[in-house]
């Protein structure tokens, strides 16, 4: 038999936790504005980085070779921007951790209620809005291939990257009670993932006993997804309509150890990114339960 009383109690607790979260964000108006408007200067940096990038994909010897490298650099910079920008949430999450311990011990709501509220409203809602605005500005102003399917792949990957970064910060905030310690842990996690992304150091040049770490790099999944989506159907031809095309996008991907043969080679990157996000969410919930037992 369905327990209506428990359901009503859970809804009341969920509403209370949602109101509490909204009030905390409203009170910290400076953080809200900084978190939502950060896309403006970051977008400017992306545009400056790509101001000379030609999206017509015409091959003009050295100039367009640099253009190919600029595309790859822009992709990596976009992913890094989405990951590192989530660190602005750490200080607020640390403060909410103390509030959660106090209100949970007072019986206001369960751990699962607080966790679900945080994921739905503070992570999914905020991340989706910021990712949509960021993608609509950056994608077209950086001169990436103007294709509807590629744009939505870009939007989805940017959202997953931002979502992953938020879950990492949430997990670290649930683990460490001091802001300085939490900040160091997040930076360490991101730096290791950046090194093993394949963009900074070639994976072939690393020790064999360390090469397996690239499977745990969210930077690699996100960067590979965007690079494959951008280059898979491109052909770089000589200028002046000579119809001579000395370079293809697939050759660029092969040079960067991104072998694209089937659609699964593309989508497995977003799947891997999503799996890592779910794993960190599970670990976060486990850490919140641990806080409950020790307080």
Automatic annotation (TrEMBL):
GO terms for cellular component: membrane. One of its GO terms (molecular function) is ABC-type transporter activity. InterPro entries: ABC2_TM (IPR013525). Its main location: membrane. Keywords: Membrane, Signal, Transmembrane, Transmembrane helix, Transport. Pfam families: ABC2_membrane. It is found in: Membrane. Residues 1-17 form the signal peptide. Coiled coil: none annotated. Residues 63-231 form the ABC-2 type transporter transmembrane domain. It is a multi-pass membrane protein. The chain crosses the membrane at residues 119-140, 152-174, 181-203, 271-289. This is ABC-2 type transporter transmembrane domain-containing protein.
